[in-house]
Amino acid sequence: MTQFEINSDISVARCLSPSFYLDDVYFESSRDHIFSRTWQFAGLKSDADNIRPVTLLEGFLDEPLIVTYDGELRCFSNVCTHRGNLLVSESCRGASIRCGYHGRKFDLSGKFLSMPEFEGVRDFPGPEDDLAGLEIREVAGLMFVAFDPAGSFEEFFGPTLGRLADFENSNTAVSTSVYEVNAHWALYCENYLEGFHIPYVHKSLNRELDFASYDIRTFRFSSLQTAVPAELEKDSGRRQEFDGKAAFYYFVFPNLMFNFYPWGLSVNVVEPLSPTRTRVRYVTLETDPSKRKTGAGSDLERVEAEDQRIVESVQKGIGSRLYKPGRYSVKQEIGTHHFHRLIAEFMNQGGAR
Known about the structure:
By secondary structure, the protein is an alpha+beta fold. Helices cover about 25% and strands about 30% of the residues.
């Protein structure tokens, strides 16, 4: 398999090879090399009843899981350790989980409890008869799980956790929406990771921001973009209330976006479907509806539609026989360069060890 190379010096580096976006082999291998080694969104804790099935990245990883809550949040496989039957098909309540195929029973931590008609089976049960568990973390009512993460939850989410903590126990109205985009998942992410395109693609959003103040910072597995409101000097109250920023845009590798606005939080989960098809799931936590129609987060549907159009255009363009990877803007494409370097690292080595 080709080794991807992104020079650490952005001033001489070239963008990621088009083959990553176009070749089915890389799309398939990214399941194990990238997505199984990172933290993924597993839904809202409020939806977790006390036994809830979850399909992680449906249409891509398609991993059947169970989330349970009985005072402690847990996650484990939804596949019976006897003959592979799916255990739970819909949310329910109970003190244990019983397989509907042959009656094998587990407790709410996934530990084997009993199995009928197994007298005489030697060395049974063993650890392999328990359901395999996954790491699960919850913050601000959002659940995240990982199979074999390349780093801890804190390493991945880093500075995002401080702002997410502000939403703990807050009064939030939660809504969800889903979009599908005719483009590779990574193209959608790298578009998010730079504000360079805002004056050209998002005319209305550009009027809300002071583009000259746009700032990008990178961390081990995440990045942060901030911008000052265009009307900051005319609104000292807003300056004090939101640290002088129109929005905080946090990205957590490889596919999670946390957009903090004065009115609340929009979480975007980018879900691969095929090399040319991506699902984007929006989860919105609204804390102050009175601010919903003003500022950088006032017209998310328009911004989403504009992003979709430009990313779909790029998907067509990178397939050109004449296209060669371009260079990065040292000032504006720090986040995209960082993202490409992480893709190269994970694809070349199966993730940081």
